[in-house]
Specification:
alpha+beta; 5 helices; 31% helix
Length: 179
């Protein structure tokens, strides 16, 4: 099946303004604790660094989102396959943006999935990340409120699955932190 439509959105904001209006590290750490990726992937909390300090290494954030409309009647499995493919495509685009913006670092749309085709992330085994050069944090892992971000900066609302039914669209949100 094919995707009906993909809309692209982006908006730049100063990191200090983003920290003030959209980041609540302690609040989102509590949400992260309820996720199976907590302390199970290197891209997710808990971290051994100061999260606010990480943000403050940069001066600007380019928030990038894709709104993906799914065809009616699509299966959950197919919907998630499409979403995974588009997340991979967005990751490639973000890495290309990094390459053309020296000193920038991308923020993944959701948690890291680099090792999904291998035996999984090495963190639970107490081993270092296999791919530290390509592992990226997500906005939410660093305490950013993605729902508020896409709503206020991009005019989008997130939709969620209900009763096992896919929403009419998904929103993938990532970004590019720039010096």
């Amino acid at each position: 099946m094919e995707i009906c439509k993909i809309e692209r959105f982006q908006k730049e904001i100063g990191v200090s303004d983003y920290l003030e209006g959209y980041v609540a590290v302690e609040e989102f750490l509590e949400y992260c604790k309820a996720c199976p990726n907590y302390d199970a992937t290197w891209s997710c909390p808990p971290f051994d660094f100061d999260v606010e300090g990480y943000w403050k290494q940069f001066s600007r954030l380019l928030v990038i989102a894709r709104k993906i409309y799914l065809p009616d009647g699509i299966s959950q499995e197919e919907g998630f396959r499409i979403l995974g493919d588009l997340k991979s495509e967005m990751t490639r685009e973000l890495f290309e943006m990094e390459a053309t913006n020296p000193g920038s670092v991308s923020l993944s749309a959701g948690s890291c999935s680099i090792c999904r085709n291998e035996s999984g992330c090495t963190r639970p085994a107490g081993q270092p990340c296999r791919y530290p050069q390509t592992m990226r944090y997500s906005i939410e892992a660093l305490g950013g409120n993605v729902g508020l971000t896409v709503q206020k900066l991009l005019g989008l609302q997130l939709e969620w699955m209900e009763d096992g039914k896919l929403p009419s669209y998904f929103v993938l949100a990532g970004g590019l932190l720039m010096p």
